[in-house]
Request: fold
Amino acid sequence: MRIIKKSLISCLLTLVLSSCANSPFMLERGETSYKRQDYRQAFIRLEPVAKAGNMDAQYAIGYMYYYGQGVVEDRTKALGWMKKAAEQGNSDAIKALSMLVK
Reply:
């Protein structure tokens, strides 16, 4: 019985946290942090949203990796995130990739 309770609580917690990552609120807070040039906080807020599949957050994370804003510069990770965003139709990511990958 105790194991079932723990499993149920774990599942509920996972659902709650994943819904927070998809929240437009987290995307907005990440964008606000970015505009304030608080890149580390922006990255922390945007990364879960990007991992949840939001194309705008994916592009932003890729951009931040490309220029080393809030994270250590990593062009490979940058292009990976930008490709994910472009595959979903993010126009900024599509333009960026057309200039970066030749």
Q: What stands out?
A: The helical segments are 2-21, 24-35, 39-51, 55-67, 75-87, 91-100.
